[in-house]
Amino acid sequence: MTAAPLKLVVVSAGLSTPSSTRLLGDRLAEAVRRAVADGGRTVDVRVVELRDLAVDIANNMVTGFPGRALAEAVAAVTGADGLIAVTPVFSASYSGLFKSFFDVIDNDALSGKPVLIAATGGTARHSLALEHALRPLFAFLRAVVVPTAVYAASEDWGGSGDALTDTLPTRVARAAGELAALLVTRPSATVTAVDTVVPFEQQLAALRPE
Fold it and tell me: Does the record bear Glycoprotein in its keywords (predicted)?
């Protein structure tokens, strides 16, 4: 019996079209697809573009109710087998749009979910945002973040062929391999037993003295 395709969702917080953030997300997703295929599995990839959900996210923050498009995006993220989360770096951290999206997701919804974090920026000096901002965010959400985080500065896109400095493809392949390994070995979700509900009258009776 052929196993069902794994569900991989790319969350991209890029604001422009075309976007280097989306480009990095696509490269990572393709690398994960190839790595999973080497293990005999297939992957269905869905991309969630946060720029298209900005108004819905803002409305949700104010009203507490998601619009249809946002609700579908949240359902895709929470129902995925794994995530690739990519943001541009603004002021040495993730973008406000990126953070707001994960703020509208229940704190327990990503518990145990494999996540690959990545970011783009104009200079390599902002690469530590992955470690001091994104990794703690997903640790708080109790996701399982792969060891290799991928940062792409402007100079990473125009490779010179120098094996010492053109490391983006190497980092993409390493991170994708780590996420693929988690995807194919992650156990199926188990059903948690529901506690028996004791009627209120029975609870009161237990409190009465003999």
Answer: no
Pairwise CA distance, residues 60 & 209, whole Å: 51
CATH of span 6-207:
3.40.50.360
For 61-111, give the secondary structure using H, E and C.
HHHCCCCHHHHHHHHHHHCCCEEEEEEEEECCEECHHHHHHHHCCCCCCCC
And the tokens for 197? 């509900």
